[in-house]
Amino acid sequence: MKKSGFALLIITMVFIIFALLPQYSFAEVNVNIGINVPLPAFVFSAPPAVVFIPGTYVYVVPDVDIDIVFYQGYWYRPYRDYWYLSTSYNGPWRHIDQKTVPIVLFKLPPDYRHVVSGQQRIPYGQVEKNWKNWEKEKYWDKQGQKENKQKGKGIKGKGKDKD
Question: What are the residues whose beta carbons fall under 8 Å from the beta carbon of 59, sequence distance 6 or more?
């Protein structure tokens, strides 16, 4: 009788141990669904100057080896086939679905980084403060029209001087 009581005690203890074991288990399973394309880190030491891309209200950071643009208050970084978004030029960056990327960013000229090479650098503070009004008031469109008029007058003036 003592043997059967002892066996019952052992079986009960084994059952309890196995019943409680999952709670104290050191094994762990993680399932991550998403992208595993790490965005290369890039840190600006100071707020970057930007350049306006004509025909858009997109601003690009020139003279860096990454694609980074500012549009309507957000920073965008395309990398491989993925897009990342941040509220700051230094991140943190979060992956976004391509469906949420503004269409204007897909329509940028393929050589937009080279198109802006001779343009005026705009301090980031000015862009951050004024981008909304510039877009609302079509500031860059008006600036382009002024430049075209000035260029036109300059050419006509030279022609008149020769007569």
Answer: 50, 51, 52, 53, 69, 70, 71, 122, 127, 131
How confident is the model over 44-72, as a mean pLDDT?
Answer: 91
Q: What is the mean pLDDT of the chain?
A: 78
Place of tokens 């141990």: 17
Output the pLDDT for position 107: 93
Highest averaged pLDDT of the listed ranges 18-22, 83-87, 130-134, 158-162? 83-87
From CA 86, how far away is CA 74, in angstroms rounded?
6
CA–CA distance, 32 with 94 (Å, rounded to integer)? 16
Q: How crowded is residue 8: how many other Cβ atoms within 10 Å of its Cβ?
A: 10
Q: Which residues of 51-117 form beta strands (DSSP E)?
A: 51-52, 58-60, 69-71, 74-79, 82-86, 94-96
Using a 10 angstrom Cβ sphere, with 0-12 exposed, 13-18 middle and 19 or more buried, the burial of residue 136 is exposed
* Average pLDDT of span 23-27: 50
